[in-house]
């Protein structure tokens, strides 16, 4: 395990494990060339508190407070409106010209208001059978990108293709107004039967052109160049238990949340995979949660997570050993753990489904018996995080 | 979430991206002022010469209401035009958000001094989307003016009376809203040569400004706003002059940064959607509490008068009246 080299940070739960705080702690501790995002999009919400500043990182990497630039790889879905809002929030938090810290792979898909409105229209239509979507157009963006060969009436991934699909707009298109206009016109026509945002394609073309001028757009070799220059921290979004292949359908995100994308971007370069886990399990919105217990929810108040209009309620339950092992296996193994929320008072663990929850007298020892614990932490505040020194045996590190 | 108020959001996003690449919010002015004065000219989209501006109903906006905001950009206004330019882009979103009007369409323009300025009048087009922001950014802040305590407001008033066609008036006999923001007097006369040169109409007789405002008042609710931080905020002559022309529609505004909010609240009152208290509560609701104080003072007189209903003439009547 080498935390001085490239580190891939993946959440081993349903999200909200503390990936943001862990990425921040890794970046604050040692020189880091870049944080690379390898999945998800504007729905990510990674809380970091450092030196009295708080920000919920969404498209910017959680290393921003540590001054580390962010690269959005082609696996990321980019939403310029939300990006601008986040840039303003970061500026208010004292980061000078945050957009200058950002580079984006030109192949990254663009999430537009068309996708967002369609996403909400579909989720609203599901009524009580909601999937727990964040309402930010993520799934819709991926779905539309899969339709190139589809015809009206086809069913793709369980959804009927209503109109004539076009090519999916990408970040690189933002600098090519004619191409972008053609693709947005197709999007508008395609989604007209479902939902129409209140604005014109003209406006979007103008705005996206300003976006393209404000951030550095790169080719597909950027991650490799960054990784060859120095240490790169790969920040995963969502958790492995929401993974499109390994999660519990339909309560999944349309994204590979396991480290596989990061491994692909690293193209064989050595790295350490760090799995982030809380001392208890949490989940946002609908979906299975075997160890859920209202007593856990009442016991551990949450500072930065509430109920989202589209996402649904914040839920909590005991640590689930079966799900944890399952998540680690879905990653094809992780090298070490980052354990967060160690301040939780006497957490319990369910060792086998059906068996009662037993108290964890020494959570760190319990995790350490499974895998080396490389990072420990409490809330989202950087001051409460400890990163293992490479020379020491990680299991002995305490918060 | 943000998408409920797309206009504001897009406006803010565009501004953020432009700032990140180091582009001045008002690039047109910056570019022009770097050139010698004899090269200064109005942007084609804002040139009033031989132009007509239209506020039409459409499939999206079936009940359009025209709102025109023309602000004085001469030197006596000091920093005020820049503050206006930065703030006015939000006006449409503000009106929509509180539902004061179903389909507002907004036009921006700028007023200078036809005796001495290169660009004495700039008039954009009625828009209902974020092209408004672009219009504002294209306004040239010449900063001239003659120093004789008068600007060519009457020339702008003439353009609005004669060169604007609105479906609100033609189809429904409904007046539009015109806000002139400045700090000086009208010229003693609307000079025929200025009308010919700037607007292109074949007029050969000077015209009494009072008659221009009389004609204008048939189709428009006309307000004059005198903002603080301009040169003549405390000069009683300005108030007497404009009150004489517009009655209670002369408004003094302590905080020029509250101009958007003042316009929105004034329209809310005039439409009888809200009273002053509710208008101020609405402003607080959308995060404009600080502006609300200045707006409350500005509206103190307007709010106490009996409700004024627009005189609705026969919708089939003539569009033009003769100037006398």
TrEMBL record, chain A:
<feature type="active site" description="Proton acceptor">
    <location>
        <position position="16"/>
    </location>
</feature>
<keyword id="KW-0963">Cytoplasm</keyword>
<keyword id="KW-0479">Metal-binding</keyword>
<dbReference type="InterPro" id="IPR018220">
    <property type="entry name" value="Adenylosuccin_syn_GTP-bd"/>
</dbReference>
<comment type="pathway">
    <text>Purine metabolism; AMP biosynthesis via de novo pathway; AMP from IMP: step 1/2.</text>
</comment>
<comment type="subunit">
    <text>Homodimer.</text>
</comment>
<dbReference type="InterPro" id="IPR027417">
    <property type="entry name" value="P-loop_NTPase"/>
</dbReference>
<comment type="similarity">
    <text>Belongs to the adenylosuccinate synthetase family.</text>
</comment>
<keyword id="KW-0436">Ligase</keyword>
<feature type="binding site">
    <location>
        <begin position="341"/>
        <end position="343"/>
    </location>
    <ligand>
        <name>GTP</name>
    </ligand>
</feature>
<protein>
    <recommendedName>
        <fullName>Adenylosuccinate synthetase</fullName>
        <ecNumber>6.3.4.4</ecNumber>
    </recommendedName>
</protein>
<dbReference type="InterPro" id="IPR042111">
    <property type="entry name" value="Adenylosuccinate_synth_dom3"/>
</dbReference>
<keyword id="KW-0460">Magnesium</keyword>
<dbReference type="Pfam" id="PF00709">
    <property type="entry name" value="Adenylsucc_synt"/>
</dbReference>
<feature type="binding site">
    <location>
        <begin position="15"/>
        <end position="21"/>
    </location>
    <ligand>
        <name>GTP</name>
    </ligand>
</feature>
<dbReference type="GO" id="GO:0004019">
    <property type="term" value="F:adenylosuccinate synthase activity"/>
</dbReference>
<dbReference type="InterPro" id="IPR042109">
    <property type="entry name" value="Adenylosuccinate_synth_dom1"/>
</dbReference>
<dbReference type="InterPro" id="IPR001114">
    <property type="entry name" value="Adenylosuccinate_synthetase"/>
</dbReference>
<keyword id="KW-0342">GTP-binding</keyword>
<dbReference type="InterPro" id="IPR042110">
    <property type="entry name" value="Adenylosuccinate_synth_dom2"/>
</dbReference>
<feature type="binding site" description="in other chain">
    <location>
        <begin position="16"/>
        <end position="19"/>
    </location>
    <ligand>
        <name>IMP</name>
    </ligand>
</feature>
<feature type="active site" description="Proton donor">
    <location>
        <position position="46"/>
    </location>
</feature>
Automatic annotation (TrEMBL), chain B:
<protein>
    <recommendedName>
        <fullName>VWA domain-containing protein</fullName>
    </recommendedName>
</protein>
